[in-house]
Amino acid sequence: MRTHRKSAPGWLWPAMGALAVTLLLGGLTARYLTIRATRIADAKAWTVAGPPCPEVTEAEMMQELGAGLRSFEYGAATFVRRRGEVECAPIYENGGRGDTFHPVCRFSRPGDVQVRTVDGAWQFRPGPGRPVVVTVSPGGRASCVMAGSPARSRGLG
User: Fold this and answer.
1) DSSP letters of 85-141?
2) I need a labelling partner for 69 at 20 to 30 A (CA). Which of 23, 29, 58, 157 fits?
3) Using one digit for the tens of pLDDT, what is the confidence trace for 27-86?
4) For residue 119, what are the contacts with CB-CB under 8 A and spacing of at least 6?
5) Model confidence, pTM
6) d(CA 77, CA 59)
7) Which contacts of 36-42 are long-range, i.e. CB under 8 A and separated by 24 or more positions?
């Protein structure tokens, strides 16, 4: 004896496919919005207003080699400092809304800072114990702002 199995209605498979696509697109959209919100928050957190760091020549920076120099690469830039801690992040253009990013680094108390890119080298001397934030623009130019008083320089946050 044969039993007759009922088949699914013709509209069920296209409806299930549409539901799967809708769920996938909804998940991707939510993920994109989360990433975008994080990038915007990072851009705000890493934007520091302060006076520009005094600039010095490379010769002036190299005169005081007693403290030694420590270097590292981040993004398309090489950073050199005398002392202290450093923390860097990729910050996206247009306040976190863009597709390209540039490096931003916080130095706790670097003494001197040098930034080298394909566009040149920049040397900054903020003074003993001064925390700074160094930004490398998408064009490869470096800028530095003093991020607080020496009393705050024990941490990076």
Assistant:
1) -EEEEEEEHHHHTSS-EEEEEEESS-SSEEEEETTEEEEE---TT--EEEEE-TTS-
2) 157
3) 777 777 787 788 788 778 788 888 999 999 888 887 766 557 889 999 889 999 988 899
4) 139, 140, 141
5) 0.71
6) 20
7) 36/96, 36/97, 38/96, 39/92, 39/96, 39/97, 40/95, 40/96, 40/97, 41/96, 42/89, 42/91, 42/92, 42/96
